[in-house]
Amino acid sequence: MRRRQLILGLGGASAALAFTLGLGWWQSRNRVPSSAALLPLPIGKMDFALTNHRGERVRPTDWIGRPTMAFFGFTWCPDVCPTTLSDISGWLEELGPDADRLNPVFITVDPERDTQQVLADYLANFDPRITGLTGPLAEVERAVAGFRARFEKVPRDGDYTMDHTAGVFLFRADGRFASIIDYHEDRRFALPKIRRALT
Amino acid sequence: MKSLILSALLTLSATPVLACETFTLGDLTIDHAWSRATIGADRPGVFYVKITNTGSADDALIGIATPAAGMPMLHETVVTEGVASMPHAMSIPVPAGESVALAPGGYHGMLMGLTTALKEGDSFPVTLTFQNAGEVVVNVEVLSLRAEGPDCDDGN
Which DSSP helix (H) or strand (E) runs through A10? Predict the structure, then answer.
């Protein structure tokens, strides 16, 4: 019995070690550890400078005055990102004129590939009210930290992919955090959450 | 040359509502085979499909192949503590009497090394390999980058 536990323990430890060795060295250096329990900062307390897909400089304080809906992703992403941007486009259409008061933003976690032009070409496929943001990796990391979000560059078959927080963040017009639409949450809850952030 | 053949193939086989076409292989029924348009050929494409096992024995999807991509593979989107990742799926179970969907946010085929950009309205073949039932070729319809699935009469 004791021997079996020991073997299981060793197996678990070596699996954990292999996992850590395999993934750990690629992890983004400034990743915020165990951020799951922390709430995003109010937008007014965030600090980053990014560029939107139209080439304009964007600071978080520019967002005060409009409710913000923000999503992290990358344009090389085949599944989660087009699905979420398609969902967001659908919500904006369903909201009707109210959606014009919203500030929907897509922040890339892969600025290496997602340049301003790449974002512009990509976002042309979705609702034109969505603004794409990119910039130096350090500024993306500051934005991610303010949202208490996470991302990680993962090597994959000679290339790389990005793991990233997949929820849609909602903030009220004064910048206070409102709620998150989780990726696997029933989509029927999304519109009421957005409407609440709009009030 | 390869991309020329492929683009000829894509053009010739393009028909609307192709994604609603049903394919059968033994006890397996396969439909809703679709993909999303890509910007250029550098980004990976995606492949979605629904498989229904009407038989009494379990099966599993163990691989995909297509002339449209040099490195097609099976993935699963997993969200852990709010963070999405895409681990490889070595095999996707298709239990007896059940349906499994490769659909947005879950299992999907990831088409790395596209031979040409996928354009809305095009189609391309994908060979599905099952552990027990063997192989079947399905036609995959390319929908828009914004698409969430094909509009078929069956309401799925």
Answer: helix A2-24
Cross-chain Cβ contact A164/B83 below 8 Å:
yes
What was the ipTM of the complex prediction?
A: 0.83
Whole-number pLDDT of residue A9:
47
Over 80: is that where the pLDDT of B16 sits? no
The distance of B114 to chain A (nearest Cα, Å) reads 12
**Mean pLDDT computed over every residue of chain A:** 86
pLDDT above 60 (res A34): no
Q: For residue B125, what are the β-bridge partners?
A: B139
pTM of the model: 0.82
Fold of A31-198: Glutaredoxin (3.40.30)
Domain boundary assignment for chain B: 2-143
| Segments making up each domain of chain A, as ranges | 1-26, 31-198
CATH node for B2-143 = 2.60.40.1890
Structure token digits, residue A49 = 């400078």
Smallest Cα–Cα separation from A144: which of A53, A27, A35, A20?
A35
E runs forming strands in B40-122: 45-53, 59-65, 69-76, 78-80, 83-85, 92-94, 99-102, 107-114
Distance from B89 to chain A by nearest Cα, in Å?
Answer: 14
Closest CB to A79: pick one of B82, B108, B112: B108
